[in-house]
Write the structure tokens for this entry.
Amino acid sequence: MENNPAIALFLALGVMIAFSKIGGSIARKLGQPRVFGELLAGVILGPTVLDLLHWGIFSGTDVHLLEETIAQLAELGVLMLMFIIGLEVHLGELLAVGRVAVFGGVIGAVLPVVLAVPLVLAFGFSNEAALFAGVTLAATSVSISAQTMLELGVLRTKEGSALLATALIDDVLAILLLSFVVATTGSEGSVDAGGFLWIIGRMTVYIIGAGLLGWFVLPRVVNWIHRYNEGIKGTAAFGIIFALAFGWSAELLGGVAAITGAFIAGVGLSRTGEEARHEIEEAVTNIAYALLVPVFFIHVGLVTNLREITLEALPFAGLLLLAAVISKIGGVGLGAKLGGFDNLEAMRVGISMISRGEVGLIIASLGLANGALTGEIFPSLFLVILVTTVVTPLLVRWAFQQKPARPAAQVSTES
């Protein structure tokens, strides 16, 4: 491998993808979300257990270059993952349970930040670390709860519809908070009033401009391309081009995270014709989940050493986990109550929002790459993401055993 570093990359990627898929399959057979198995596979391959990149077979390789290449592929995986999340946005879902979604999404995104920031600061971490930890806990992973609800046959209920809509509001707010934190923590030195206004103005102008471009222009362009392009997967190729272009412009023009641009592009392209959108979604999903997303999940394990969580650090990790659970059950539950749900329905929606999954992982990884999160706090955050991911399906099952949920169709008829 000394003469051709690409050969070492081939082997590393093969091992990473294999562990990811095996871990995901085992997790599903054990009744856990696939993402849990993939994250655990990354931990096993990382310095916590096997330390893949320091195996003897890589001894003649520039390990630093190999790590950089894997990290760049992982960033591309994150970009595609957020693009896919944007593609799956259906604004009509928000209208059906609008009040619950707005109240639950807003309070459920703000309360974790309110609880996490003073907690992290109290343990002596920096302002930047506190902000990133808060935004990480503000996120939620709807896919894990939605899959559990689907298996229980309760996804098309009042609570199921509320979960999908509330999670959308929550994630949009988390991305906006992330954009703000990246823009402010990425500045050198302290930011004065003028600099702060410049950051906010630049970020706002970009998000509005990119949002309008994505909402009104991208669907028309892609529909036209789909109508006249006869190339193999030509529409999908242009969808990926726009995701990459929006990701690039987000960093360069808006000073915000590249994933924000990819998400905006995905939301815009969700409005294309059904056939065009399906082609883009199918192609991007295949590329992302076959190669790039497994690399992202495993890469997180490669840069995480759970051995660094000492006995002294356990109280902090435990309190962070407590804040993560309480902020979603209490915040989203309160919002659902204000939106008109009863106590049981509100509790179910709140419990369903506990999992941070891949969305929380994206934000935490960005904080690590940004330098705001250090090796001292990242393992604790990773542990919180891991635990919330695995306990959510168990809690969702318990919550829906208390009393049968009403179908969404029945709820809409009554209202």
About this structure: The chain has one domain: 5-414. The two ends are 67 Å apart (CA to CA).
